[in-house]
Automatic annotation (TrEMBL):
It holds the Pfam family Methyltransf_25. Residues 47-137 form the Methyltransferase domain. Residues 193-204 have a biased composition (Basic and acidic residues). InterPro entries: Methyltransf_25 (IPR041698), SAM-dependent_MTases_sf (IPR029063). The keyword Signal does not apply. CDD domains: AdoMet_MTases. Keywords: Methyltransferase, Transferase. GO terms for molecular function: methyltransferase activity. This is Class I SAM-dependent methyltransferase. The lineage of its organism: Bacteria, Bacillati, Actinomycetota, Actinomycetes, Micrococcales. Gene3D superfamilies: Vaccinia Virus protein VP39 (3.40.50.150).
Length: 204
């Protein structure tokens, strides 16, 4: 997970992310607001939390009836998430890998909150997201509004909501939500951002 503005400073490798997490808690510790706004409307099932960070979303989902697989490239982040889940008494399956590096199956919901996923090979990442969603399932993709990130970096280097909307609409998915949502976070590394673009899409 990242709340950073995509830029040259955004970590690229697992080692970079481990260093970024360092020895102190990086994020606010609260589940993301867009997740809380959207997911209670859905029937719990299986969910993949992409870029799970320190596990706040994964733990919340597990505590609300979801069967959770949480994925992050940083081993440091995953270990913090695992400890958080154990303290909360909820079951989460944890995986240390970059998105698309490991076959994890299909899920009723794939949640990607502020992912920092480089767009190296055309639409490959968009295709990986679509493939991870089970028939009849949904993708929840959230990132900061485009005017809060450098346009060149956002458009050329990282997968952003517009990439997902264009790809999924062309593939016949139903775009159930595509909206700007106010964001209020008082602490953690991403507290300076004030607006999110929230995309919720359902398979044909």
């Amino acid at each position: 997970m990242t709340h950073e503005k995509p830029s040259e400073e955004t970590p690229r490798t697992a080692a970079d992310w481990d260093e970024r997490y360092g020895t102190t808690v990086l994020w606010s510790g609260d589940p993301n607001g867009s997740l809380l706004a959207v997911v209670p409307e859905l029937t719990p099932g299986t969910v993949l939390d992409v870029g799970c960070g320190e596990g706040a979303d994964a733990v919340w989902l597990a505590g609300h009836g979801w069967t959770v697989t949480a994925l992050d490239v940083s081993r440091v982040a995953v270990e913090r998430g695992r400890a958080r889940a154990e303290a909360a008494g909820v079951a989460v399956t944890w995986a240390v890998a970059g998105f698309g590096e490991r076959a994890l199956g299909q899920f009723d919901l794939v949640s990607a909150q502020y992912p920092a996923i480089p767009r190296h090979h055309g639409t490959r990442v968009e295709e990986d997201f679509a493939a991870a969603v089970a028939p009849g399932g949904r993708l929840l993709f959230v990132h900061h509004e485009m005017d809060e990130v450098p346009p060149a970096a956002a458009a050329q280097d990282y997968v952003m909501p517009q990439h997902m909307v264009d790809h999924l609409r062309a593939a016949g998915w139903e775009i159930e939500r595509d909206e700007i949502r106010e964001r209020h976070v008082s602490g953690g590394a991403g507290h300076g951002h004030t607006r999110d673009r929230v995309v919720l899409a359902r398979t044909p």
